[in-house]
Design goal:
The longest helix is centred in the C-terminal third of the chain and has 17 residues, at 236-252. The protein has helices spanning 15-28, 43-47, 59-63, 69-72, 93-97, 106-111, 131-139, 157-170, 190-203, 216-220, 228-231, 236-252; strands spanning 2-6, 33-37, 74-75, 81-84, 120-124, 142-148, 176-183. It has 255 residues and is of the alpha/beta class. Helices cover 40% and strands 14% of the residues. It has a single domain (2-252), classed as 3-Layer(aba) Sandwich (Rossmann fold), CATH 3.40.50.300. Bound molecules: adenosine-5'-diphosphate and magnesium ion.
């Protein structure tokens, strides 16, 4: 089983959009996927069509050690995709865990014993490098970083890399930077192309060939609680996520 933290402390760069649609595409391809929503905003939860108000046990309970993962996992309407949902109380978890024993390893422990239930876990991280993201970094073996093709795209990436190094040195030697995905690319603008080129120059083959285009259908789909493949399978955003999922399979899920 592969555990992937999808992280970038910048907000609005496409973390959640990547999580929802990668999960759905990999599920469609026959893989068993768990999406762990570690963002108190719960956009992955609602974006998969789960009513947050109706959620019982959540990732919060998993982190606090108050429920086993089997009690938190929810089936979704999308083939192959299960969810560890986020509820509003997750916002308090950082503070509640701050003084707790083994506060950085709670998620890793929560995942124990789940090996036979999934091929891949995608962790949707909040837009910060706080304790929730740290828990994702300790639980994961792969870090996937979405980078938005806009001004200041690389701002903060240095800090993210330093955090990765600290985690590798002190908490989880298995964690590797495993992929970068360019998001919200607009091939018509020079800026977007330049940012893409710069990221590829800096990170080489770590950058997935498939870039996610800016596509309004991708921003509409979550309000219907649907991954893009089930909202509008013929739009450019759907094609891009299908391509990205192919690459993820090739790189990470080959038997
Ligand atoms: P993050 O999880 O990093 O905060 P999101 O995935 O929630 O980022 O994306 C931020 C906003 O941009 C959301 O409203 C989302 O629907 C929209 N968005 C994300 N990717 C795209 C895209 N490729 N094209 C158009 N809108 C997008
Ligand atoms: Mg998000």
């Amino acid at each position: 089983m592969k555990i992937v933290a999808v992280a970038n402390q910048k907000g609005g760069v496409g973390k959640t959009t990547c999580c929802i649609n990668l999960a759905a595409e990999l599920g469609r391809a026959g893989h068993r996927v768990i999406l762990a929503d570690l963002d108190p905003q719960g956009n992955s939860t609602s974006g998969l069509g789960i009513d947050r108000g109706a959620v019982g046990r959540s990732v919060y309970d998993l982190l606090l050690g108050e429920a086993p993962i089997a009690d938190v996992l929810l089936e979704t309407a999308w083939p192959g995709v299960s969810l560890l949902p986020a509820t509003l109380d997750l916002a308090g978890a950082e503070v509640e865990l701050a003084g707790a024993m083994s506060r950085e390893t709670r998620l890793r422990r929560g995942f124990e014993g789940i090996d036979d239930r999934a091929d891949i876990i995608l962790i949707d991280c909040p837009p910060s490098l706080g304790l929730l993201t740290l828990n994702a970094f300790v639980a994961a073996s792969k870090l996937l970083v979405p980078i938005q093709c806009e001004y200041f795209a690389l701002e903060g990436v240095g800090q993210l890399m330093r955090t990765l190094e600290l985690v590798q040195n002190y908490l989880n030697a298995d964690l590797e930077l495993a992929g970068i995905v360019l998001t919200m690319q607009d091939q018509r603008t020079r800026l977007s192309r330049e940012v893409g080129d710069e990221v590829r120059r800096q990170f080489g083959s770590l950058v997935f060939e498939t870039a996610i285009p800016r596509n309004v259908r991708l921003s509409e789909a979550p309000s219907y609680g649907k991954p893009i493949a089930y909202y509008d399978a013929s739009c450019p955003g759907a094609a891009a996520f299908s391509g990205l999922a192919q690459e993820v399979k090739q790189r990470w899920l080959r038997p």
